[in-house]
Protein backbone atom coordinates (compact mmCIF):
# COMPACT_ATOMS: atom_id res chain seq x y z
CA UNK A 1 0.00 0.00 0.00
CA UNK A 2 1.38 3.38 -0.97
CA UNK A 3 1.68 5.88 1.91
CA UNK A 4 -0.13 9.20 1.37
CA UNK A 5 2.09 12.20 0.68
CA UNK A 6 0.86 14.11 3.77
CA UNK A 7 1.61 11.14 6.06
CA UNK A 8 5.10 10.84 4.56
CA UNK A 9 5.74 14.51 5.19
CA UNK A 10 4.72 14.22 8.87
CA UNK A 11 6.93 11.16 9.36
CA UNK A 12 9.96 12.98 7.94
CA UNK A 13 9.36 15.98 10.20
CA UNK A 14 9.15 13.73 13.30
CA UNK A 15 12.41 11.97 12.26
CA UNK A 16 14.17 15.31 11.75
CA UNK A 17 13.03 16.53 15.18
CA UNK A 18 14.36 13.39 16.84
CA UNK A 19 17.75 13.84 15.08
CA UNK A 20 18.00 17.46 16.25
CA UNK A 21 17.15 16.43 19.80
CA UNK A 22 19.79 13.68 19.69
CA UNK A 23 22.39 16.11 18.31
CA UNK A 24 21.64 18.62 21.08
CA UNK A 25 21.93 15.90 23.71
CA UNK A 26 25.28 14.70 22.30
CA UNK A 27 26.59 18.26 22.18
CA UNK A 28 25.53 18.86 25.78
CA UNK A 29 27.23 15.65 26.90
CA UNK A 30 30.41 16.56 24.97
CA UNK A 31 30.55 20.01 26.53
CA UNK A 32 29.96 18.54 29.98
CA UNK A 33 32.88 16.17 29.46
CA UNK A 34 35.15 18.99 28.24
CA UNK A 35 34.16 21.19 31.19
CA UNK A 36 34.75 18.35 33.65
CA UNK A 37 38.22 17.71 32.20
CA UNK A 38 39.10 21.39 32.52
CA UNK A 39 37.75 21.50 36.09
CA UNK A 40 39.67 18.34 37.02
CA UNK A 41 42.81 19.87 35.59
CA UNK A 42 42.33 22.93 37.76
CA UNK A 43 41.74 20.75 40.81
CA UNK A 44 44.96 18.79 40.20
CA UNK A 45 47.02 21.84 39.30
CA UNK A 46 49.23 22.61 36.34
CA UNK A 47 52.81 22.22 35.25
CA UNK A 48 54.08 25.73 34.62
CA UNK A 49 56.87 25.40 32.07
CA UNK A 50 58.97 28.50 31.55
CA UNK A 51 60.48 29.52 28.26
CA UNK A 52 64.25 29.43 27.69
CA UNK A 53 64.39 33.19 27.31
CA UNK A 54 67.38 34.74 29.04
CA UNK A 55 66.23 38.34 29.14
CA UNK A 56 66.27 40.03 32.50
CA UNK A 57 62.94 40.48 34.17
CA UNK A 58 60.04 38.13 34.55
CA UNK A 59 58.76 35.28 32.40
CA UNK A 60 57.61 36.60 29.01
CA UNK A 61 55.57 33.50 28.12
CA UNK A 62 54.38 30.52 30.14
CA UNK A 63 52.65 27.66 28.27
CA UNK A 64 50.17 25.61 30.31
CA UNK A 65 50.13 21.81 30.57
CA UNK A 66 47.90 19.48 32.53
CA UNK A 67 49.97 17.09 34.58
CA UNK A 68 50.57 14.07 32.41
CA UNK A 69 48.48 15.60 29.62
CA UNK A 70 48.88 17.49 26.40
CA UNK A 71 49.38 21.19 25.92
CA UNK A 72 46.32 23.33 26.34
CA UNK A 73 47.23 25.54 23.41
CA UNK A 74 44.42 24.03 21.25
CA UNK A 75 41.58 26.54 20.84
CA UNK A 76 37.92 25.57 21.26
CA UNK A 77 35.04 27.78 20.13
CA UNK A 78 31.94 26.13 21.58
CA UNK A 79 29.40 27.50 23.97
CA UNK A 80 29.47 29.56 27.16
CA UNK A 81 30.17 26.51 29.38
CA UNK A 82 33.58 25.96 27.86
CA UNK A 83 34.24 29.71 27.74
CA UNK A 84 33.79 29.85 31.50
CA UNK A 85 36.13 26.86 31.93
CA UNK A 86 38.70 28.57 29.70
CA UNK A 87 38.43 31.74 31.74
CA UNK A 88 39.08 29.75 34.90
CA UNK A 89 42.16 28.20 33.25
CA UNK A 90 43.40 31.63 32.15
CA UNK A 91 42.77 33.02 35.62
CA UNK A 92 44.74 30.17 37.19
CA UNK A 93 47.60 30.80 34.74
CA UNK A 94 47.77 34.50 35.59
CA UNK A 95 47.54 33.75 39.30
CA UNK A 96 50.36 31.20 39.10
CA UNK A 97 52.47 33.58 36.99
CA UNK A 98 52.01 36.37 39.55
CA UNK A 99 52.84 33.95 42.36
CA UNK A 100 55.99 32.78 40.57
CA UNK A 101 57.12 36.33 39.85
CA UNK A 102 56.59 37.23 43.51
CA UNK A 103 58.69 34.22 44.53
CA UNK A 104 61.45 35.31 42.16
CA UNK A 105 61.43 38.87 43.48
CA UNK A 106 61.41 37.71 47.09
CA UNK A 107 64.32 35.31 46.49
CA UNK A 108 66.29 38.01 44.65
CA UNK A 109 65.86 40.55 47.44
CA UNK A 110 66.80 37.98 50.06
CA UNK A 111 70.22 37.86 48.36
CA UNK A 112 70.73 41.59 48.95
CA UNK A 113 72.43 43.13 52.02
CA UNK A 114 69.42 45.40 52.54
CA UNK A 115 67.65 42.53 54.29
CA UNK A 116 70.61 40.73 55.87
CA UNK A 117 73.98 41.50 57.37
CA UNK A 118 75.61 39.77 54.39
CA UNK A 119 74.53 39.41 50.77
CA UNK A 120 74.89 36.27 48.68
CA UNK A 121 78.27 37.74 47.70
CA UNK A 122 79.43 37.53 51.32
CA UNK A 123 81.75 40.25 52.54
CA UNK A 124 82.63 41.59 49.08
CA UNK A 125 82.41 45.40 48.88
CA UNK A 126 80.81 47.21 45.92
CA UNK A 127 82.81 47.13 42.66
CA UNK A 128 85.87 49.36 42.35
CA UNK A 129 87.91 50.56 39.37
CA UNK A 130 91.50 49.88 38.37
CA UNK A 131 92.57 52.16 35.55
CA UNK A 132 89.09 52.11 34.06
CA UNK A 133 88.46 48.37 34.61
CA UNK A 134 85.71 47.48 37.13
CA UNK A 135 86.68 44.71 39.56
CA UNK A 136 85.83 43.28 42.97
CA UNK A 137 88.28 43.78 45.81
CA UNK A 138 88.65 40.26 47.25
CA UNK A 139 90.91 41.28 50.18
CA UNK A 140 88.18 40.55 52.73
CA UNK A 141 87.75 37.02 51.35
CA UNK A 142 91.42 36.22 51.87
CA UNK A 143 91.47 37.75 55.34
CA UNK A 144 88.35 35.89 56.47
CA UNK A 145 89.23 32.67 54.60
CA UNK A 146 85.94 32.89 52.75
CA UNK A 147 85.48 30.58 49.78
CA UNK A 148 84.93 31.90 46.26
CA UNK A 149 81.95 30.14 44.65
CA UNK A 150 80.51 29.93 41.14
CA UNK A 151 77.27 28.02 40.61
CA UNK A 152 77.17 25.79 37.51
CA UNK A 153 73.63 25.25 36.22
CA UNK A 154 71.97 23.76 33.15
CA UNK A 155 69.68 20.99 31.98
CA UNK A 156 70.78 17.35 31.65
CA UNK A 157 73.36 17.03 28.87
CA UNK A 158 73.86 20.80 28.58
CA UNK A 159 77.63 20.42 29.04
CA UNK A 160 78.10 21.25 32.72
CA UNK A 161 80.36 18.25 33.39
CA UNK A 162 82.46 18.62 30.25
CA UNK A 163 83.04 22.33 30.74
CA UNK A 164 83.68 21.94 34.48
CA UNK A 165 86.47 19.46 33.74
CA UNK A 166 88.12 22.00 31.46
CA UNK A 167 87.69 24.81 33.98
CA UNK A 168 89.32 22.70 36.70
CA UNK A 169 92.22 21.78 34.41
CA UNK A 170 92.82 25.33 33.15
CA UNK A 171 91.97 27.52 36.14
CA UNK A 172 92.81 25.01 38.89
CA UNK A 173 89.36 25.37 40.37
CA UNK A 174 87.70 22.75 42.55
CA UNK A 175 84.62 21.02 41.16
CA UNK A 176 82.07 19.96 43.77
CA UNK A 177 78.87 18.08 43.02
CA UNK A 178 76.36 18.17 45.87
CA UNK A 179 74.95 14.83 44.73
CA UNK A 180 78.36 13.17 44.85
CA UNK A 181 79.08 14.70 48.27
CA UNK A 182 75.84 13.22 49.60
CA UNK A 183 76.62 9.78 48.23
CA UNK A 184 80.12 9.81 49.69
CA UNK A 185 78.83 11.28 52.98
CA UNK A 186 76.43 8.39 53.39
CA UNK A 187 79.40 6.00 53.43
CA UNK A 188 81.81 8.24 55.35
CA UNK A 189 82.91 6.70 58.62
CA UNK A 190 82.35 8.96 61.61
CA UNK A 191 80.06 11.40 59.78
CA UNK A 192 77.25 12.24 62.21
CA UNK A 193 74.52 12.49 59.58
CA UNK A 194 75.55 9.43 57.55
CA UNK A 195 72.49 7.38 58.53
CA UNK A 196 70.10 10.23 57.74
CA UNK A 197 71.67 10.82 54.32
CA UNK A 198 71.66 7.10 53.51
CA UNK A 199 68.01 6.79 54.47
CA UNK A 200 67.04 9.77 52.31
CA UNK A 201 68.95 8.42 49.32
CA UNK A 202 67.44 4.93 49.65
CA UNK A 203 63.88 6.23 49.98
CA UNK A 204 64.35 8.90 47.32
CA UNK A 205 63.62 11.69 49.78
CA UNK A 206 65.18 15.16 49.65
CA UNK A 207 68.12 15.52 52.02
CA UNK A 208 67.67 18.54 54.33
CA UNK A 209 69.43 21.52 52.78
CA UNK A 210 71.38 22.15 56.01
CA UNK A 211 72.98 18.70 55.68
CA UNK A 212 73.86 19.23 52.01
CA UNK A 213 75.44 22.61 52.72
CA UNK A 214 77.31 21.21 55.73
CA UNK A 215 78.96 18.58 53.51
CA UNK A 216 79.72 21.26 50.92
CA UNK A 217 81.42 23.47 53.48
CA UNK A 218 83.49 20.55 54.85
CA UNK A 219 84.67 19.75 51.31
CA UNK A 220 85.64 23.37 50.63
CA UNK A 221 87.52 23.65 53.93
CA UNK A 222 89.48 20.47 53.22
CA UNK A 223 90.47 21.58 49.73
CA UNK A 224 91.47 25.04 50.95
CA UNK A 225 93.76 23.57 53.62
CA UNK A 226 95.68 21.45 51.11
CA UNK A 227 97.50 24.41 49.54
CA UNK A 228 98.43 26.06 52.85
CA UNK A 229 99.50 22.81 54.52
CA UNK A 230 101.67 21.46 51.70
CA UNK A 231 102.70 24.81 50.21
CA UNK A 232 101.75 23.24 46.92
CA UNK A 233 98.83 23.76 44.64
CA UNK A 234 96.84 26.97 44.43
CA UNK A 235 95.51 29.43 47.01
CA UNK A 236 92.42 31.61 46.64
CA UNK A 237 90.77 28.89 44.58
CA UNK A 238 87.36 29.15 43.02
CA UNK A 239 84.86 26.40 43.86
CA UNK A 240 82.50 25.26 41.11
CA UNK A 241 79.31 24.12 42.81
CA UNK A 242 77.59 21.87 40.28
CA UNK A 243 73.81 21.51 40.20
CA UNK A 244 73.11 23.88 43.06
CA UNK A 245 70.88 25.75 43.82
CA UNK A 246 68.10 23.70 42.23
CA UNK A 247 65.10 25.45 43.80
CA UNK A 248 64.05 28.31 46.08
CA UNK A 249 64.54 26.15 49.17
CA UNK A 250 68.20 25.78 48.20
CA UNK A 251 68.56 29.56 47.87
CA UNK A 252 66.91 30.15 51.25
CA UNK A 253 69.17 27.55 52.87
CA UNK A 254 72.26 29.09 51.29
CA UNK A 255 71.36 32.57 52.52
CA UNK A 256 70.75 31.22 56.02
CA UNK A 257 73.97 29.23 56.41
CA UNK A 258 76.63 30.18 53.84
CA UNK A 259 77.28 33.95 53.39
CA UNK A 260 79.61 34.05 56.42
CA UNK A 261 81.87 31.45 54.81
CA UNK A 262 81.45 32.03 51.08
CA UNK A 263 81.10 34.69 48.42
CA UNK A 264 79.12 33.74 45.34
CA UNK A 265 80.82 35.46 42.41
CA UNK A 266 78.11 34.39 40.00
CA UNK A 267 76.78 31.51 37.95
CA UNK A 268 77.54 29.81 34.65
CA UNK A 269 74.20 28.84 33.12
CA UNK A 270 74.40 26.49 30.12
CA UNK A 271 71.31 26.84 27.93
CA UNK A 272 70.36 24.10 25.49
CA UNK A 273 66.97 23.10 23.98
CA UNK A 274 65.45 19.70 24.71
CA UNK A 275 65.91 18.30 21.19
CA UNK A 276 69.67 18.88 21.36
CA UNK A 277 69.88 17.45 24.89
CA UNK A 278 68.06 14.29 23.82
CA UNK A 279 70.57 13.59 21.05
CA UNK A 280 73.50 14.17 23.40
CA UNK A 281 72.11 11.98 26.15
CA UNK A 282 71.35 9.09 23.79
CA UNK A 283 74.86 9.36 22.38
CA UNK A 284 76.33 9.49 25.90
CA UNK A 285 74.25 6.48 26.95
CA UNK A 286 76.27 4.27 24.61
CA UNK A 287 79.34 4.54 26.85
CA UNK A 288 78.38 6.22 30.14
CA UNK A 289 76.72 3.29 31.88
CA UNK A 290 74.49 5.75 33.76
CA UNK A 291 71.03 4.43 34.58
CA UNK A 292 69.48 7.88 34.03
CA UNK A 293 70.86 8.25 30.50
CA UNK A 294 67.57 7.50 28.75
CA UNK A 295 64.93 9.68 27.11
CA UNK A 296 62.25 9.25 29.77
CA UNK A 297 64.59 10.18 32.61
CA UNK A 298 66.15 13.02 30.63
CA UNK A 299 62.78 14.57 29.87
CA UNK A 300 61.74 14.38 33.52
CA UNK A 301 65.00 16.01 34.61
CA UNK A 302 64.66 18.71 31.94
CA UNK A 303 61.07 19.48 33.04
CA UNK A 304 62.26 19.66 36.65
CA UNK A 305 65.02 22.06 35.59
CA UNK A 306 62.53 24.28 33.77
CA UNK A 307 59.96 24.19 36.56
CA UNK A 308 62.24 24.59 39.60
CA UNK A 309 65.73 25.75 38.58
CA UNK A 310 65.01 28.28 35.85
CA UNK A 311 63.05 30.47 38.32
CA UNK A 312 66.13 30.36 40.58
CA UNK A 313 68.26 31.59 37.66
CA UNK A 314 65.75 34.41 37.16
CA UNK A 315 66.05 35.30 40.85
CA UNK A 316 69.86 35.43 40.61
CA UNK A 317 69.61 37.61 37.52
CA UNK A 318 67.20 39.88 39.35
CA UNK A 319 69.61 40.11 42.31
CA UNK A 320 72.35 41.11 39.86
CA UNK A 321 70.08 43.81 38.47
CA UNK A 322 69.24 45.10 41.96
CA UNK A 323 72.95 45.33 42.81
CA UNK A 324 73.61 47.13 39.56
CA UNK A 325 70.87 49.64 40.36
CA UNK A 326 72.27 50.22 43.84
CA UNK A 327 76.02 50.30 43.13
CA UNK A 328 76.20 51.23 39.46
CA UNK A 329 77.69 47.79 38.83
CA UNK A 330 77.05 44.35 40.22
CA UNK A 331 79.12 42.09 42.46
CA UNK A 332 77.15 39.10 41.19
CA UNK A 333 77.68 38.10 37.55
CA UNK A 334 75.27 35.62 35.98
CA UNK A 335 76.58 34.43 32.61
CA UNK A 336 74.21 32.67 30.24
CA UNK A 337 76.14 30.48 27.81
CA UNK A 338 74.79 29.05 24.57
CA UNK A 339 75.42 25.33 24.94
CA UNK A 340 74.24 24.29 21.48
CA UNK A 341 77.61 24.67 19.75
CA UNK A 342 80.60 22.36 19.68
CA UNK A 343 82.61 21.66 22.83
CA UNK A 344 85.26 24.12 21.61
CA UNK A 345 82.70 26.83 20.85
CA UNK A 346 81.16 26.50 24.31
CA UNK A 347 84.63 26.42 25.86
CA UNK A 348 85.47 29.75 24.24
CA UNK A 349 82.44 31.35 25.89
CA UNK A 350 83.25 29.65 29.19
CA UNK A 351 86.83 30.94 29.16
CA UNK A 352 85.68 34.52 28.60
CA UNK A 353 83.39 34.23 31.61
CA UNK A 354 86.07 32.64 33.81
CA UNK A 355 88.65 35.29 32.83
CA UNK A 356 86.24 37.96 34.07
CA UNK A 357 85.93 36.19 37.45
CA UNK A 358 89.68 35.59 37.81
CA UNK A 359 90.61 39.20 37.05
CA UNK A 360 89.13 40.23 40.42
CA UNK A 361 91.91 38.48 42.37
CA UNK A 362 94.58 39.63 39.91
CA UNK A 363 93.63 43.31 40.13
CA UNK A 364 93.19 43.07 43.90
CA UNK A 365 96.77 41.78 44.15
CA UNK A 366 98.04 44.51 41.79
CA UNK A 367 96.27 47.22 43.82
CA UNK A 368 97.74 45.90 47.06
CA UNK A 369 101.25 45.90 45.57
CA UNK A 370 100.90 49.50 44.39
CA UNK A 371 99.81 50.55 47.87
CA UNK A 372 102.78 48.77 49.43
CA UNK A 373 105.01 50.76 47.06
CA UNK A 374 103.38 53.98 48.23
CA UNK A 375 101.29 54.38 45.09
CA UNK A 376 97.57 54.60 44.46
CA UNK A 377 95.11 53.36 41.88
CA UNK A 378 94.20 57.02 41.36
CA UNK A 379 97.51 57.32 39.49
CA UNK A 380 96.65 54.45 37.13
CA UNK A 381 94.98 54.75 33.73
CA UNK A 382 94.52 52.80 30.47
CA UNK A 383 94.64 49.43 32.24
CA UNK A 384 94.37 46.10 30.43
CA UNK A 385 94.25 42.56 31.78
CA UNK A 386 94.97 39.35 29.89
CA UNK A 387 94.52 35.94 31.52
CA UNK A 388 96.73 33.26 29.99
CA UNK A 389 95.90 29.57 30.57
CA UNK A 390 94.08 30.36 33.79
CA UNK A 391 97.17 30.60 36.02
CA UNK A 392 99.12 33.44 34.41
CA UNK A 393 98.00 37.03 33.93
CA UNK A 394 99.53 40.17 32.42
CA UNK A 395 98.40 43.58 33.66
CA UNK A 396 99.48 46.69 31.74
CA UNK A 397 98.68 50.29 32.62
CA UNK A 398 100.00 53.84 32.60
CA UNK A 399 101.15 55.05 36.02
CA UNK A 400 101.99 58.56 37.12
CA UNK A 401 104.49 59.02 39.95
CA UNK A 402 105.21 62.69 40.60
CA UNK A 403 106.04 64.22 37.24
CA UNK A 404 107.03 60.85 35.80
CA UNK A 405 104.67 58.78 33.65
CA UNK A 406 105.52 55.21 32.77
CA UNK A 407 103.86 52.19 31.24
CA UNK A 408 104.10 49.25 33.62
CA UNK A 409 103.65 45.65 32.67
CA UNK A 410 103.34 43.15 35.50
CA UNK A 411 103.19 39.39 35.04
CA UNK A 412 101.27 37.46 37.68
CA UNK A 413 101.25 33.75 38.46
CA UNK A 414 98.84 31.70 40.55
CA UNK A 415 100.40 29.60 43.33
CA UNK A 416 99.92 28.46 46.95
CA UNK A 417 99.83 32.07 48.17
CA UNK A 418 97.33 33.13 45.56
CA UNK A 419 98.37 35.53 42.81
CA UNK A 420 101.94 36.81 43.09
CA UNK A 421 103.92 39.19 40.87
CA UNK A 422 106.56 37.32 38.86
CA UNK A 423 108.05 40.25 36.93
CA UNK A 424 107.78 43.99 36.27
CA UNK A 425 108.72 45.86 33.10
CA UNK A 426 108.67 49.64 32.86
CA UNK A 427 108.80 51.96 29.91
CA UNK A 428 109.00 55.72 30.36
CA UNK A 429 106.24 57.67 28.68
CA UNK A 430 107.55 61.11 29.63
CA UNK A 431 108.62 62.02 26.12
CA UNK A 432 105.23 61.04 24.69
CA UNK A 433 103.48 62.77 27.61
CA UNK A 434 105.41 66.01 27.11
CA UNK A 435 104.64 66.02 23.39
CA UNK A 436 100.93 65.62 24.11
CA UNK A 437 100.97 68.53 26.57
From TrEMBL:
Q: Record keywords: Transferase included?
A: yes
Q: Which Pfam families match?
A: ADK
* Statement: the UniProt record of this protein carries the keyword Nucleotide-binding: yes
Q: Which UniProt keywords apply?
A: Kinase, Nucleotide-binding, Transferase
Bias (Basic residues): 7-21
Task: Name the InterPro entries on file.
Answer: Adenylat/UMP-CMP_kin (IPR000850), P-loop_NTPase (IPR027417)
SUPFAM superfamilies, alphabetized: P-loop containing nucleoside triphosphate hydrolases
Q: Which PANTHER family match?
A: NUCLEOTIDE KINASE
The Swiss-Prot or TrEMBL record describes its family as follows:
Belongs to the adenylate kinase family.
What is this protein's name? UMP/CMP kinase
Organism, by scientific name, is Cyclotella atomus
